[in-house]
Amino acid sequence: MDNRHQQQLIAEIKELRKEKNAIILAHYYQPNEVQDIADFVGDSLQLAQKAAATEADVIVFCGVHFMAESAAILSPDKIVLLPDINAGCPMADMVDAEELREEKAKHPGTKVVCYVNSSAEVKAESDICCTSSNAQKVVDSLLNEDILFVPDENLGKFVAAKANKKIKYWPGFCPTHHRLGKEDVLKARAENPEAKVLVHPECREEVWKEADYVGSTAGIIKYAESSPAKEFIIGTECGILHELQKRCPDKKFYMASDDMRCPNMKKTSLQKVRDALRNLSPQITVPEEIRLKAIGALERMLTVSK
Ligand code: 13P
Ligand code: SF4
Fold this sequence. Notes:
This protein is α/β, with parallel strands linked by helices. About 45% of the residues lie in helices and about 15% in strands. The chain is globular.
């Protein structure tokens, strides 16, 4: 897209945002130009908190389906837009409510902790949600010792390594993070011996065991900002580099692998944001019966995260 066309789209988005009293929320994995037009850029928890608290009439969620759905659960009186209706999360699709009900029936008394990367129906079957930044706090908040963690096995194992609880995992994973292997990290370290390795807990155990820091996208950014180190190897989706470079212009960032791009997060474009605002579509809604069952798990998470 040429620069003039881009500037025209940005001007139209700004105008429409004002006209519709809209807020644009974007995840750190979104394309750079989408992050730049957003009112707020954050990790999954920060975005859910913003969506729950906003006074805007319209929320344009630049992220993937489960994020917009969580916003629709938390703010039922708002119009929630997902600029590309096909922006899903393959990990969220790895568990469905029927399978979860069957598993719960086999283990009565088990508490279900569900990663926010899940459908509204799965949240409706869960006791509490978590994100990568509060998973430890959420698990620690449960008095119950038996926990079923869905759907991210890697995050579940990372949390279990620190918690004194019996945790069963669902065999789900994020394809973008799961692709990263220990050999990639070792190679990146050999090439950049001074660099600290910062990875997301959606990575495999063999990867987070090699890291200097493991945390959510917001956690990784905070760590890089406050660390005296000048070089970092990053083990999460490549969109995070935009915020890292903005906040730390004097530091160097190397991706742990060239293959860490989430195709769904990259489906948003300025044109789709403009069209979503102009047409107030595609809208994300959740049937009231499901919403009422799902909201408890999300609200309990927000309470624990305060
Ligand atoms: P966080 O935003 O919690 O870091 O999670 C990353 C992610 O994979 C979102 O899809
Ligand atoms: Fe889902 Fe992974 Fe993409 Fe996040 S990065 S939306 S977890 S596939």
